[in-house]
Design brief:
alpha/beta, 7-stranded parallel sheet, 9 helices, 13 strands, globular, binds nicotinamide-adenine-dinucleotide, binds uridine-5'-diphosphate
Length: 310
């Protein structure tokens, strides 16, 4: 039985990953400091004898014995990662160093949950992995963007220097059940607002675009990447290439919830990327992966979840 460590395992993506790993027969150690994640996200797993939950901050060393490390610990929404930006960078950088040190001692394979934010506000569209990005190094998003970029550097240097088995995955906007209802991400915001009968808040004129991947597809890509041949290390984009403006998303959410909401336009946050869409040819060729769930179907599942929990 393979032992997997999932850092950030009590968060949105982490909890789905823990579920998937347990279902495929892994022994799972979930490590989280509960900054944005919660016990509630993994409560249904606590009775499983192959699951263990540990409260721990990855900026401190961690001595455990595992075969696979999925490094997801890091707040992911702008509200949360900008709440304590210094801590965000520490989590990405010190967290990566500690998990790489752990992987080095154990000779364990390690996967980094990187992000499309490494491309910044891109002038190449759709984004290919060979594009170096356009990131403001001193803006309000930099703690996250540059933290994640530095983590990628560390992963590749641990590989070059120590021949570690690494995998780097660039995750594009992902949504689904167990998103935090108040973390300010656009899908959860719009759904919660529509369900509560509040105005939908569109930042800027709503013409900026994002590509939204349903969580089940994303986790499938993550597991495939971890189990891919050792010579394939990435970075590889995982996301849904369907591209929507925030106005279109607001329309779709209202349709799915079955309401006609008021739209409230608010100022665009600093450095908000204009366009984002993954080129997924690499994932298709190397992992045989492509998303299966349309935004319409994924929104149905997500709305059903928020209806139940609100
Ligand atoms: P999330 O906030 O729900 O999960 C992050 C988890 O990490 C939380 O459970 C949080 O408590 C934990 N955490 C934060 N700092 C920690 C620390 N110092 N020590 C231990 N645990 C810590 O966010 P998510 O959407 O599940 O994102 C998971 C990972 O995927 C993140 O690394 C994020 O950057 C990456 N990612 C997510 C998306 C997305 O759209 N969801 C997009 C790109 C990248
Ligand atoms: N580390 C850890 N768990 C381990 C091994 C190392 O948390 O099982 C941490 C350790 O505290 C160190 C970091 O990982 O700060 C980087 O380890 P590495 O061996 O690369 O560097 P060194 O210890 O030589 O500075
Ligand atoms: N956004 C919006 N209204 C909201 C929350 C976000 O219009 O209530 C916009 C935001 O400005 C951005 C897009 O939606 O252009 C995606 O934002 P999110 O924070 O979900 O992800 P990211 O910007 O990190 O891709």
């Amino acid at each position: 039985m393979q032992r997997a460590l999932v850092t950030g395992g009590a968060g949105f993506l982490g909890s789905h990953l823990c579920e998937r790993l347990l279902a495929s027969g892994h022994d799972v150690l979930c490590v989280d400091n509960f900054f944005t994640g919660s016990k509630a996200n993994v409560r249904h797993l606590l009775d499983n004898p192959n699951f263990e939950l540990m409260r721990h901050d990855v900026t401190f060393p961690l001595y455990v014995e595992v075969d696979r490390i999925f490094n997801l610990a890091c707040p992911a929404s702008p509200i949360h990662y900008q709440h304590d930006p210094v801590q965000t960078t520490k989590t990405s950088v010190h967290g990566a160093i500690n998990m790489l040190g752990l992987a080095k001692r154990l000779r364990a394979r390690i996967l980094q949950a990187s992000t499309s934010e490494v491309y910044g506000d891109p002038e190449v569209h759709p984004q290919v992995e060979s594009y170096w990005g356009r990131v403001n190094p001193i803006g309000v998003r930099s703690c996250y963007d540059e933290g994640k970029r530095c983590a990628e550097t560390l992963f590749f240097d641990y590989r070059r220097q120590l021949n570690l088995e690494i995998k780097v995955m660039r995750i594009f906007n992902t949504y689904g059940p167990r998103m935090h209802p108040n973390d300010g991400r656009v899908v959860s915001n719009f759904i919660v607002q529509a369900l509560k009968g509040e105005p939908i808040t569109i930042f800027g004129d709503g013409s900026q675009t994002r590509s939204f991947c349903y969580v089940d597809d994303l986790i499938d890509g993550m597991v495939r990447l971890m189990e891919s041949p050792p010579d394939f290390v990435g970075p590889v984009n995982i996301g849904n290439p369907g591209e929507f403006s925030m106005l279109e998303l607001a329309e779709l959410v209202q349709e799915t919830v079955g309401v006609k909401a008021n739209i409230q336009f608010q100022p665009l946050p600093q450095d908000d990327p204009r366009h984002r869409r993954p080129d997924i040819s690499l994932a298709q060729a190397k992992l045989g992966w492509a998303p299966k769930v349309s935004l319409k179907d994924g929104l149905k599942e997500t709305v059903a979840y928020f209806r139940k929990t609100l």
